[in-house]
Structure formats: C-alpha cells, structure tokens
Design a protein that fits this description.
By secondary structure, the chain is an alpha+beta fold. It contains 4 helices and 4 strands, in the order H-E-H-E-H-E-E-H. About 15% of the residues have low confidence.
Amino acid sequence: MKKRPEPLGPALVDSKDDFEKALGETGGGTYVLRLYVSGLTPRSIRAIEKVRSICAEHLEGRYTLEIIDIHQQPNFAKEAQIVAAPTLVKELPLPLRKFIGDMSSVEKLLLGFDIRKKD
C-alpha cells in the first residue's frame, strides 16, 4: 500500500466538524469588515461614524474594519463588485454579506451580522 505524502500546507478538512474547529482556531470569531465609501461626502462620513459606533458597541475587540475610498482605489471596488457607495462588506465570519446605504439601520446590520442587540 502506497503511503500518502505529507501535505505542504495546512491539511485538508474532511468533515464539517473539522472545518468548524479549524475556523475557530484561525480566528473564526473575528469579524472582517470592509466599508467602501465615495470620498468624504456627508453620506460617507455618516456611514463611517455609524459602522465604527456599531462595531465599538457590539463587536469590541472582535473585528477589523478597513475603509476604502473608491475614488482613490477604484480597483478594489471593481474586484469586490461594488456598484454603490457606501457599501459595507462582511467577509468573515461566513456567509459574506453586503449592506448598501448610510448604515442608519442598526437592526438590519446586526441581523446581517447574526448578532442580537444589547438591551
């Protein structure tokens, strides 16, 4: 019987349980967010302030937020298929979600983040 070679990188995951365990070990509880804005317009500034406020209140210590100006970096918007700004993209934890607008609906964002609002 021929022995399988050792993998060069991380081992492949064979089951859902193994996948979830591996995800947890790589920071699966951390939210990776990207906010695409269009310059420093009032709408963009409101979206930035709102997202920062929501993250500080509900995701403290468990998120990374990258703010991308699509006028300064149009290639990022094209790669992420951004068609309107502001747009917030939740990349992790999966599933990927996109939110378009000024981020004024806290309930909608928390629902999309799978987070219950603090009472």
